[in-house]
Amino acid sequence: MAEKQVMVVGIDDSEHSFYALEWTLDHFFTPESKTLFKLVVVHARCSPMSVLGLAGPGSTDVLPLVEADLKRIAEKVNEKAQDLCSSKSVEDVTVETIEGDARNVMCEAAEKYHASVLVLGSHGYGAFKRAVLGSVSDYCSHHAHCSVMIVKKPKHKN
């Protein structure tokens, strides 16, 4: 029997990334099709130093606090992802946290797992915010060595 293709889903602590994960589970891991892909969920955790940035003298005093907070957030994100997968009866899933810039982490994870598809949520930033912050999905769509699917959460009509 041929080995399953791999689908990597990138998550962070945003509702957009969890929408993308849920959408992926609902469309690709249904009881009829769950044997097509192996699922790998990757959370990119930024480094404590990147959070502190140019905080200046004394910033190393808070480094352990920032590290603990980032670790706690990552554990919460991974647990939430695992729970969502379990609620959809998807048990064959790898959930991993990798420290680094999300753009590089996602492209490297897709390569590491030999992914056929990399799935990312879209935060829906406007052109200015995207230019300032950078877009993980835009970067990955140009640099990942596999297909990239960007899942946008629909806007609710009032």
From TrEMBL:
Residues 7-152 form the UspA domain. It comes from the Eukaryota. This is UspA domain-containing protein. It comes from Escallonia rubra. The lineage of its organism: Eukaryota, Viridiplantae, Streptophyta, Embryophyta, Tracheophyta.
